[in-house]
């Protein structure tokens, strides 16, 4: 099956994007068959290309976020560059940007200005704190937003806070931008109306803070920071086994609690212990309960603990490092890994998580900076001489 048979074939996305959030949104559109033209700075390109060099000389971030795209280098501040961008947008369905605060408006690329010149174009803005309000002019990076939403205060141990180990604010914003664009495309197709899409990193992650927000507002204090333990469920967390490994278990209801007491802890009388009679009781007496569970874990190796817990229907898992995740049997058995080309090499990448029956995943190459510039400009009708002049003047 070719890209022309995928759900978003025929949709063109032009993206003035950098870093993580917007590229994540547009890569998912590319996964579904959209033509994504990534506009990059002449010479250096998206600064995420230089975050690290661990993947055959390429950035681990960039390789993850930019497969199946075309790279066009273009100085959008230069008049001829602006004209090229205008011609691109004439034939585009979606325009995505996560430029610095105010930059899109200064370039004449705000939603209102685009609506006048390109009435069928769906603009999507990814910002830090929104395009209005008291923080509209502030730059925002992932960890700053983790701090501002209170996520960092929930993450770590009682002694020390910690950032979430992935770019969770960027990923949240990219997901909402992606679904927002899909919704806007559907609305345009069914009603003819165009709705600009706006997503901020702060508000995307704020949505993910819904449970601790409710807990804090109505409970009077925020959930405690307790490592792998769960703030409102016990026993729930990682415990160390006799061979020094960690296994996490989760008891979600009274049936599982009774099974754990009788068949794993070998202490069925605990079911009637008033300290552990209900979920809130077990949370209130977490330390005493954890001591009982930890003692039992310490008597057996990890494999035996996992086997025993699974046999009685208790959710459990070994605590993997990333290397173990890469070799996970589920990913192998379900053939989730696929080869993707990068400049000068190939890498293994995970297929998109949403499987559409009968449609293979699109896993096209990660582009080199400016790799498709000449082809895109030729497609716009520029001659070889015009392209050479633009290149000589560093417009492309």
What are the main properties of this structure?
about 400 residues; alpha/beta; Rossmann fold; formyl-coa transferase, domain 3; 2 domains; 6-stranded parallel beta sheet; 3-stranded antiparallel beta sheet
User: What's the helix count?
Assistant: 18
**Total DSSP E strands:** 11
Say what the CATH topology of the largest domain is.
Rossmann fold
Strand order in the largest sheet? 3-2-1-4-5-6
Based on secondary structure, the structural category is alpha/beta
The CATH class of the largest domain is Alpha Beta
List the helices and strands and how they pair.
Layout: E1 12-16, H1 21-31, E2 35-40, H2 60-65, E3 69-73, H3 79-90, E4 94-97, H4 103-106, H5 111-117, E5 122-127, H6 142-148, H7 151-154, H8 168-191, E6 197-200, H9 201-208, H10 210-219, E7 236-240, E8 246-250, H11 254-264, H12 279-284, H13 286-297, H14 302-311, E9 315-318, H15 322-326, H16 329-333, E10 337-342, E11 345-350, H17 373-379, H18 384-392
Parallel strand pairs: 1-2, 1-4, 2-3, 4-5, 5-6
Antiparallel strand pairs: 7-8, 8-9, 10-11
Helix pairs in contact: 1-8, 8-9
Provide structural commentary.
The chain has 396 residues and is of the alpha/beta class. It folds into two domains: 3-209 and 345-392, Crotonobetainyl-coa:carnitine coa-transferase, domain 1 (Rossmann fold); 236-318, 2-Layer Sandwich (formyl-coa transferase, domain 3). Helices cover 40% and strands 14% of the residues. The protein has helices at residues 21-31, 60-65, 79-90, 103-106, 111-117, 142-148, 151-154, 168-191, 201-208, 210-219, 254-264, 279-284, 286-297, 302-311, 322-326, 329-333, 373-379, 384-392, and strands spanning 12-16, 35-40, 69-73, 94-97, 122-127, 197-200, 236-240, 246-250, 315-318, 337-342, 345-350. It has a six-stranded parallel beta sheet, sandwiched between helices. It has a three-stranded antiparallel beta sheet with strand order 7-8-9, with helices on one face. The protein has a two-stranded antiparallel ribbon with strand order 10-11. A hairpin with a 2-residue loop joins strand 10 and strand 11 (345-350). The longest helix has 24 residues, at 168-191. The radius of gyration is 26 Å and the shape is elongated. The model has no long low-confidence stretch (mean pLDDT 95).
């Amino acid at each position: 099956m070719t890209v022309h048979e995928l759900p978003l074939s025929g949709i063109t996305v032009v993206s003035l994007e950098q870093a993580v959030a917007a590229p994540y949104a547009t890569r998912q559109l590319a996964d579904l068959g959209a033509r994504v033209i990534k506009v990059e700075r002449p010479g250096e390109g998206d600064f995420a290309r230089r975050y690290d060099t661990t993947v055959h000389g390429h950035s681990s971030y960039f390789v993850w976020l930019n497969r199946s795209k075309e790279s066009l280098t273009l100085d959008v501040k230069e008049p001829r560059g602006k004209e090229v961008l205008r011609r691109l947008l004439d034939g585009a369905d979606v325009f995505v940007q996560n430029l610095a605060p105010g930059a899109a408006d200064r370039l004449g690329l705000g939603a209102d200005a685009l609506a006048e010149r390109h009435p069928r174009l769906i603009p999507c803005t990814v910002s830090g704190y929104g395009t209005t309000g008291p923080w509209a002019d502030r730059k925002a990076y992932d960890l700053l937003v983790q701090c501002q939403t209170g996520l960092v205060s929930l993450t770590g141990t009682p002694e020390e806070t910690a950032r979430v180990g992935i770019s969770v604010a960027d990923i949240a914003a990219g997901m909402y931008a992606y679904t927002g664009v899909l919704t806007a495309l559907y609305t345009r197709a069914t009603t003819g109306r165009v709705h600009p899409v706006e997503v901020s990193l702060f508000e995307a992650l704020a949505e993910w803070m819904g449970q601790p927000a409710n807990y804090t507002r109505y409970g009077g204090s925020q959930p405690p920071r307790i490592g792998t333990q769960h703030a409102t469920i016990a026993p729930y967390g990682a415990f160390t086994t006799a061979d020094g490994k960690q296994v996490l278990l989760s008891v979600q209801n009274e049936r599982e609690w009774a099974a754990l007491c009788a068949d794993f802890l070998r202490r069925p009388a605990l079911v009637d212990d008033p300290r552990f009679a209900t979920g809130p009781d077990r949370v209130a007496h977490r330390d005493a309960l954890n001591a009982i569970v930890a003692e039992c874990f310490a008597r057996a190796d990890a494999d035996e603990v996992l086997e025993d817990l699974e046999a009685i229907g208790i959710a459990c898992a070994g605590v993997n490092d990333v290397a173990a995740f890469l070799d996970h049997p589920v990913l192998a058995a379900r053939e989730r890994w696929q080869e993707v080309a990068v400049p000068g090499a190939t890498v293994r990448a995970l297929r998109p998580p949403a499987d559409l029956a009968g449609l293979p995943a699109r896993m096209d190459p990660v582009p080199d900076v400016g790799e498709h510039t000449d082809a895109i400009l030729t497609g716009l009708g520029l001659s070889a001489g015009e392209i050479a002049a633009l290149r000589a003047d560093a417009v492309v």
